[in-house]
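Hi team,

Filling in the usual template for the complex we talked about on Friday. All components are listed, including any nucleic acid strands or ligand strings, so the model treats them as one assembly.

SUBMITTER: L.P.
PURPOSE: interface mapping
COMPONENTS: two
RESIDUES: 527
SEQUENCES:
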Amino acid sequence: MGFLDALLGRTKPVQPKLDDLFALPSAAIQLEAATGFTPTGSGSVCFRAPEGKPFADIQNEVRELLDMDADKGTALPVEVIKDSYAYTWLVSNHLSDEMDALVTDLHAVNSTLVDNGYGPQLLCTLVAFRDASHRRLALVYHYKRGTFYPFAPLNEQRQERDNALEFQVRGVLGQDMKIEPDQTRWFPLWGAPGL
Amino acid sequence: MATRTRYAPDRGLTVRMTATMFLLGLVFVAFVALIIGIMIAAHTSAGAIIVVALIFGGGSAWISLFYSDKIALAAAGAREVSPREAPQLHAIVDRLCALADMDKPRVAIAPTRMPNAFATGRNSKNSVLCVTDGMLGLGLTTEELEGVLAHELSHVAHKDVQVMTVASLLAIVAALLVRFAFYSELFGGGRRMGGDNGNAALLIPLIMLVSIVVYAISFLLIRLLSRYRELAADRSGALLTQNPSALISALSKVSGSMNRVPTQDLRAAEPLNAFYFAPAMKLHGGNGGGGGGFSLSGLFSTHPSLEKRIEELTKIQRELGQVGGPDQRGLR
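RESULT (copied from the run log):
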């Protein structure tokens, strides 16, 4: 935020960075090779819907918008969920080996939202992973920073996360992927849909 | 870039705020010019007083800015809380900071029964967001609490602590000059200067008079600026959450319950008033006068009246409602 904006007490909306999302498929391969974590095939986009419109309307609007992209050849089986913090999640489910398709879907959802003015409201995109012992891991894409960070929940109730695993993932992916350098911004997403 | 946006700046507010700051600057320049003029006319070297006032004023302003987070937390008796202690609070702040792409402030809770919240700190890295027990115990919904927190985060984003510190510098210096001039008058200043020039005897009362006038004007301007910045924070907060209605209902709940609060709490909270979510201290009771007319309490208060804030937020409600409405104005 610029000096003048601060002086005048106004905030410019922050536009999201979308393209880095395509780093995900190759990261998934790397992750599986190094840690044994495989994609579950589900991913989600989280955004803040403006008030006023009933949730059903947004749901329909997003559905409609996504259907307009149907000419790209991909039908988008997207689930719409509202969480307890009043954020809207669009969850896309694929097979675990369809990482490319999943990312394409997520990108389609993102760009549809951005084209329709929801850009500053985009919070994050999340892609879920599991390993053989059913440990959970998410790679979260932070739109406003254009960076990824790992989130490994251990216990939702006690709000414990597996920091060791998260740092391991950072070590594995840090070379090829923009990992958020500021760990204070690795905010948790307890009970996130799609995780 | 033809991407649509749902944000529109409030030009009127920007203009009024700029005008207020310009006036403050103007008063400052005029003040310095007048003092120098008086000194030259009186052929005296009372400049030392002014330099000392500037150094003292600037120094104390800088110290209060630099330690604003610590001072505010100590004054409110607040305690910093970890994500595990206050998961909901942290989760809301996390998300808002991610949406706005700003550094996350520390989060603190103050054991005060009065429902309120404030944010302070010299920069975004060192800021702290404090919520009182009263606010948490008010039974606000997640979205209402989020509205309150978004308002406070907007204060951080707008650097309101810095801006208001600089703005009050003028008033501090003027107040110090009054005091110095008064003391030097008392303790033989007149005797010392009596020898060289007859004008010098007039000098100190004149500086006092000018300083008092400047102090009064700058006081009113600073209060005006503070009210504009509250409105700006309301606006940015509502646009960030996209939910002005929740902020409106939070405001009315907070203001409604403020009237039942014992006075000891109010008095204790008075020094922090400028950065509070809702004014802790009201000069003449009521909410800045219910009517639309001119009121003295409205002129002196740090916060706009509840009616005014709700009116402005209702405008945002309308803006958000009409999709594509404010977009076509080619803003950027």
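MY TAKE: The radius of gyration of chain A is 17 Å. Chain A touches chain B through 40 residues (CB under 8 Å).

Thanks, L.
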